[in-house]
Design a protein that fits this description.
CATH superfamily of the largest domain: Response regulator
Strand order of the largest sheet: 1-3-2-4-5-6-12
Helix content: 40-55%
Order of helices and strands: HEEHEHEHEEHEHEHHEHEHEHEEHH
Strand content: 5-15%
CATH architecture of the largest domain: 3-Layer(aba) Sandwich
Number of helices: 13
Length: 387
């Protein structure tokens, strides 16, 4: 990820949050890495910050962890970065250990947003502020701030890109020439991730009227979140569900025209199932329109190769910078800036939030959004592998 590091360093200098080169992340029984540095925060006091990320199986979360860690260390903080290996008890134990080891603040991207009440209560009892990172932590009063993207809008963008791929809309939002009907299938993210509901609801705010008027047909009849959700965002589970849909619903010779997928990993599983079922090799030849999210390099290559149609780019460098800014504010004794104080009710309280904007990536915007910004290089896009 050399290009991303160089870009982040330049951007960080302008923000006084210069990014250092990504640290090496070793994977142990808990997929953890711990900073060995020590330092002081902005007010001269030595502070230790625990950063809990959900997994190292996704390149996105590795990049997030590296970015948060390096930015905090550049401000002089000691950082304990841990990856939970997609295992709820492991992440809970890691957070317990962070508190025991003297963390002054926690930044948590939860595996299960409902499973950390005990840890958060202990943090509150010890005067430790908690920042929820990208995934809202639910059912606890002890969440002090939330940094994320506008997740409902992400869903709107996913649905919009599906309609663009089908020809119902043009990229500029104007009406396209296609009228349907089109057969589509719906996928949603993990039901224990609060964001998954926002993504799905945002998408359905765009798709439901077209389902109601017959422009779009969900041939399987599976349109409710609980039925289409994929636990833990697992690629293999999405592939199996797509295979089952093809067998149960499309064995009559009808074809899938499009698939709403909320994450690139799921998209690759869906694409594998469709390819194995004999669909054409590229969109130009008639391959179904498949959406995505996170601009993972393997999926960016698929978009560049005219196989996957779109993804949503959430620049996690900006998300990391916002989390670091909020942490620095808390440890200096000030309240972080929030730009949303109404949307994110975690079941106990409305959590003050800072929302960032995302972008739709199509084949013709890979250069401007991903390569020119330094997120991926042209060579990485061509190879489908991060260097």
């Amino acid at each position: 990820m050399k290009a991303k590091q160089l870009f982040a360093a330049a951007a960080g200098a302008a923000m006084a949050l210069t990014l250092a080169a990504c640290s090496g992340g070793g994977a142990g029984t808990g997929d953890s890495t711990t900073s060995a540095s020590t330092g002081t925060g902005g007010d001269g006091t030595a502070y230790r910050i625990g950063v809990a990320m959900p997994t190292q199986t996704s390149e996105r979360w590795i990049a997030d962890g590296d970015a948060v860690k390096s930015q905090l260390e550049d401000l002089g903080y000691t950082v304990d970065l841990q990856y939970g290996n997609d295992d709820i008890p492991t992440q809970a134990q890691q957070i317990d250990q962070m508190i025991t080891n003297g963390a002054n603040l926690l930044i948590i991207a939860a595996i299960d947003g409902t499973a950390l009440a005990s840890q958060l209560q202990t943090a509150a009892d010890n005067g430790i502020k908690v920042i929820a990172y990208d995934r809202l932590i639910r059912d606890s009063a002890n969440v002090d701030f939330y940094v994320t993207f506008d997740n409902f809008e992400v869903g709107v963008q996913q649905a919009t890109s599906l309609l663009v791929g089908l020809g119902i809309l043009n990229e500029d939002g104007s009406q396209g020439t296609a009228t349907g009907p089109f057969n589509i299938e719906l996928f949603a993210g993990s039901p224990d991730d609060n964001n998954a509901g926002f993504f799905f609801n945002g998408a359905m705010s765009i798709l439901q009227p077209l389902i109601d008027d017959g422009t779009l047909v969900v041939k399987s009849g599976q349109t409710d979140f609980d039925t289409v959700a994929i636990l833990r965002w697992q690629q293999e589970t999405a592939q199996k569900r797509m295979e089952d849909l093809l067998t149960s619903t499309y064995s009559d010779g009808s074809k899938v025209d499009g698939v709403l997928s909320p994450y690139d990993g799921l998209s690759r599983g869906i694409i594998t199932a469709l390819s194995n079922a004999g669909y054409p090799a590229t969109i130009a030849d008639g391959f179904p329109i498949v959406t995505g999210q996170d601009a993972e390099i393997a999926s960016v290559k698929l978009i560049n190769d005219n196989v996957q149609f779109s993804t949503i780019f959430k620049d996690t460098r900006k998300l990391a910078a916002q989390a670091v800014t909020a942490a620095d504010d808390f440890l200096k004794g000030t309240e972080p800036e929030a730009n949303d104080t109404t949307t994110y009710d975690n079941g106990v309280k409305v959590v003050p939030s800072y929302l960032l904007k995302s972008d739709i990536v199509y084949a013709d915007t890979i250069q401007s959004l991903l390569i020119d910004s330094g997120y991926w290089t042209a060579d990485e896009v061509a190879a489908g592998v991060a260097s």
